[in-house]
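Work Package 4 report. The design task specified in the project plan requires that, given a folded chain encoded as structure tokens, an amino acid be chosen for each position. We show below one input record used in the internal validation round.
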């Protein structure tokens, strides 16, 4: 059975998959108007005429909406003001938080390699250090008409106000191509701009030394963090227009004062002696890790000199060309008008405010903005706080946690169409993986020595946490599935881009070597291969055997590795072992509550660990993995049971973000949206930073994860079928999006009204077969962007296959509205009158003409059809094998007169208690372990 699952659950369509189906060439059609319900979710809407009204032109060519954060006051000059009100910016080389003060502007700078000791435990124990606090003293204490903003569409921040009849303005941006932060100061009247630039080094003292020296037009801030011997430097160049400029040094505090200028530009570049090099992680003495690398003075001087040789307009143009190339690929319009209230008021009034849709659009794009700021090739990847830190002891040392947080940071890189941002993590991974190869050999020697390769060819083992300097050994907090989860990100990098050279050179070697380690690590336990020891991330039971977390992640990577090898025509030595092992990894176990188990020894949900835990690690095969999908409907239903029982009690920001995506994957848009609402209303601070759990305690992963979750509501492709609008809530009855990315490198745009798509567009960026799923899509008009009719093969009414040409856009319009069948509810086992029969009943639905019954035995991924054309709401199920089946899931669905079946159904778990010859029905209405018993006898 497991071997069948391999091909079924992670299916990549073949050329002949639809052979025998009817070929359609849609040249014209008129759809009927109807009262309809959104097919994937069962949401009812009023009649709409727009179902057949296609928009003029392409959605993807329309302008995106300008989105901005704006405020009518500066951020308070405090750490609380930093986390709640400052505006975050960044370019990978640095993070910056702008406060917007008038008497004195504060700009806090972070550089991700400026690390101190991380010794100790708990929330705050060293780690990343605040690089610099930069002040611009203006002395403006009586201002009016104040406004500051961050324009997400431009990646530029502004401050504007009036003082003594003069309008002062500032413009800020952080440029990746030119590696600097640029600030332009302007005044509406010539000769009225005066200020003092005053950079400072925070937290000088034990373990940190440094000085700030001004000379001519430049201030140099430099010093050493002694624990890792990190040499750091920042340079600030002032370029005034008009007026006078004077440098001064007092008690190691350099300043530059500009008086009576018309305008000025300030350029800032930073750096340390850190480099991506395996020796950093292989060197055991902390103070020696960077000893062979040069002082950063030369490179920082070069960064600043190269930038200063360009005009401000050239720098701005370079920045915006780079930034908008990434940011401008995707837009989301939920039909919200720009609010007239400030962003802090918008946050406070959510979800009751009239502009709540605008905040939902803003938060989606803000996550993309933060990733562009914090993940750029050649720089360190985003940590728990992204690229921003104001403390000497940041939360959890601003490290990298690989049991969801790091992976969540990169989730929007792929679906939200910024895949090249993953190059940032790839560089970091290549630096630390040699250390992990040594760990892999150590673990195989310790846990499964019979499989040890004495020559050291044991692959690499996944870490739990890392930082720029260390990858410590195994932690029992999480199992070894972290490595395969990292490898899943590499597979996604290929699967969303379909670049064969990327697969061969960067992706396949990582997956193969991870699978090599896993293949040596797993042990035979009663004929299946299990992780031992094994832990489900951060749950209470640790050092157990074969947690679902480990088994699903191992399975995903084995499968992906074999798929990649076939694509590349590889014949590496361990591939035959992987192929043999794959069906034995046993990734899914269904519990007696109908749930996907988290632990193998778990029977009913909640017996082991925290039943409302923030981690939902047993469902990683649902999201972000591909194992559980529409080709495994029984597993999909079991995942929904687990999600329901996990509850919505956790107030952890990233956990809420992850649940958005997980509920979207089971096609429940209302539940997905409820978690988005909870996140925005309960965790988002006034600058849209995520308050992790109160304090406020900033953690960036929920910002990234929310974007990915919303993208999953709008578009899915985990089974390699492009499926737009799969989890749409009623609140989003009208809108459009442009440019989301699906597996296969298909760029998708959609427009909808009344919950129904009026136009879909798919740009084929790599060519190949496009499998497209949407209700009644086979009856729609499908043309190229130039208006030529497109041949396609239909698989039923809701799925088509198009053989695409690279670079061509395919436009779907005139999609007939769909009236989905309302699913039945309250399926019950009323009585078992004999050992071979079960009496069932359920609550029917108004638009059902008949019902179908299914069963899934044990851990089966799919259902078997029991009976169809049932026109009543009770049924006696008879089968000779019922006495042999210990556990089964029974499901009932509704069927409309036109043959359409409900997307959801009602399920019940039937258990056979062999010693007492009783059938047990799990009662989901009470506590997790309560059962209702039915004595087996000969009467009904």
């Amino acid at each position: 059975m497991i071997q069948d699952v391999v091909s079924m659950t992670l299916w990549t369509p073949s050329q002949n998959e639809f052979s025998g189906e009817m070929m359609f060439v849609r040249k014209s059609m008129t759809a009927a108007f109807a009262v309809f319900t959104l097919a994937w979710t069962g949401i009812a809407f009023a009649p709409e005429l727009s179902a057949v009204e296609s928009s003029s032109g392409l959605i993807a060519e329309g302008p995106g909406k300008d989105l901005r954060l704006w405020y009518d006051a500066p951020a308070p000059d405090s750490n609380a003001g930093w986390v709640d009100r400052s505006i975050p910016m960044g370019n990978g080389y640095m993070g910056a938080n702008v406060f917007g003060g008038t008497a004195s502007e504060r700009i806090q700078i972070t550089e991700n390699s400026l690390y101190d000791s991380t010794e100790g435990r708990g929330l705050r124990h060293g780690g990343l250090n605040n690089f610099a606090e930069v002040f611009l003293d203006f002395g403006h204490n009586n201002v009016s008409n104040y406004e500051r903003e961050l324009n997400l569409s431009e990646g530029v921040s502004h401050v504007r106000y009036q003082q003594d009849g003069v309008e002062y303005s500032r413009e800020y941006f952080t440029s990746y191509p030119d590696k600097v932060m640029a600030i332009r100061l302007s005044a509406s009247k010539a000769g009225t701009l005066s200020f003092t630039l005053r950079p400072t080094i925070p937290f000088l003292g034990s373990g940190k030394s440094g000085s700030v020296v001004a000379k001519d037009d430049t201030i140099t801030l430099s010093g050493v963090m002694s624990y890792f011997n990190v040499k750091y430097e920042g340079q600030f160049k002032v370029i005034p227009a008009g007026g006078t400029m004077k440098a001064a040094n007092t008690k190691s505090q350099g300043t530059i004062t500009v008086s009576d200028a018309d305008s000025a530009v300030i350029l800032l570049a930073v750096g340390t002696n850190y480099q991506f090099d395996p020796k950093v992680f292989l060197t055991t003495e902390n103070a020696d890790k960077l000893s062979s690398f040069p002082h950063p003075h030369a490179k920082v001087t070069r960064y600043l000199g190269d930038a200063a040789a360009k005009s401000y307009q050239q720098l701005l143009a370079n920045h915006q060309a780079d930034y908008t190339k990434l940011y401008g690929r995707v837009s989301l319009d939920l039909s919200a008008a720009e609010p007239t209230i400030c962003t802090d008021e918008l946050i406070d009034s959510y979800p009751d405010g009239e502009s709540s849709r605008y905040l939902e659009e803003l938060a989606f794009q803000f996550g993309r903005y933060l990733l562009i700021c914090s993940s750029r090739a050649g720089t360190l990847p985003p940590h728990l706080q992204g690229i921003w830190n104001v403390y000497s002891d940041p939360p959890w040392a601003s490290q990298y946690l690989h049991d969801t947080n790091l992976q969540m940071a990169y989730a929007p890189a792929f679906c939200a169409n910024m895949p090249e941002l993953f190059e940032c993590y790839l560089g970091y991974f290549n630096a630390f993986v040699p250390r992990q190869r040594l760990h892999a050999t150590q673990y195989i020697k310790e846990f499964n020595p019979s499989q040890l390769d004495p020559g050291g060819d044991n692959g690499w083992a996944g870490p739990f946490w890392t930082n720029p300097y260390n990858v410590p050994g195994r932690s029992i907090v999480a199992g070894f599935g972290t490595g395969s989860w990292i490898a899943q990100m590499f597979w996604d990098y290929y699967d969303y881009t379909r670049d064969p050279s990327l697969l061969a050179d960067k992706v396949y070697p990582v997956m193969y070597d991870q699978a090599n380690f896993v293949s040596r690590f797993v042990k035979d336990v009663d004929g299946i291969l299990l992780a031992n020891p094994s832990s489900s991330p951060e749950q209470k039971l640790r050092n157990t055997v074969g947690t679902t977390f480990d088994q699903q992640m191992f399975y995903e990577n084995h499968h992906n590795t074999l798929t990649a090898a076939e694509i590349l025509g590889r014949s590496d030595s361990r591939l035959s072992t992987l192929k043999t092992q794959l069906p034995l990894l046993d990734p899914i176990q269904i519990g007696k509550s109908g749930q996907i188990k988290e632990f193998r020894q778990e029977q009913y949900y909640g017996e082991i660990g925290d039943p409302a835990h923030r981690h939902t690690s047993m469902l990683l095969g649902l999201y972000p993995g591909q194992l559980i999908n529409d080709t495994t409907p029984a597993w999909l239903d079991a995942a929904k049971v687990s999600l329901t029982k996990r509850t919505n009690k956790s107030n952890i920001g990233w956990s809420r973000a992850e649940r958005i995506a997980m509920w979207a994957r089971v096609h429940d848009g209302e539940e997905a949206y409820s978690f988005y609402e909870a996140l925005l209303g309960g965790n988002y601070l006034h600058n849209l930073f995520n308050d992790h759990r109160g304090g406020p305690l900033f953690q960036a992963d929920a910002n990234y994860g929310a974007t990915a979750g919303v993208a999953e509501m709008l578009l899915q492709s985990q089974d390699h079928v492009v499926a737009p609008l799969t989890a749409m809530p009623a609140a989003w009855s009208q809108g459009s999006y442009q440019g989301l990315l699906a597996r296969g490198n298909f760029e998708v745009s959609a427009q909808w009204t009344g919950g129904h798509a009026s136009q879909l567009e798919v740009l084929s960026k790599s060519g190949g077969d496009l499998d497209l799923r949407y209700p009644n899509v086979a009856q729609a008009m499908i043309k190229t962007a130039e208006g030529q009719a497109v041949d396609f093969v239909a698989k039923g009414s809701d799925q088509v296959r198009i053989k695409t040409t690279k670079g061509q856009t395919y436009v779907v319009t005139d999609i007939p509205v769909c009236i989905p069948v309302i699913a039945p509810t309250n399926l019950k086992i009323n009585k078992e009158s004999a050992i071979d029969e079960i009496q069932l009943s359920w609550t029917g639905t108004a638009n059902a003409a008949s019902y179908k019954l299914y069963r899934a035995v044990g851990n089966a991924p799919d259902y078997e059809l029991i009976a169809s054309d049932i026109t009543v709401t009770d049924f006696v199920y008879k089968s000779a094998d019922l006495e042999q089946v210990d556990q089964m899931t029974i499901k009932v669905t509704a069927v409309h007169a036109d043959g359409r079946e409900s997307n959801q159904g009602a399920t019940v778990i039937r258990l056979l208690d062999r010693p007492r010859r009783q059938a047990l029905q799990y009662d989901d209405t009470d506590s997790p372990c309560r059962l209702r018993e039915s004595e087996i006898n000969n009467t009904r």
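The chain has 17 helices and 43 strands. Validation will be extended to a larger panel in the next phase.
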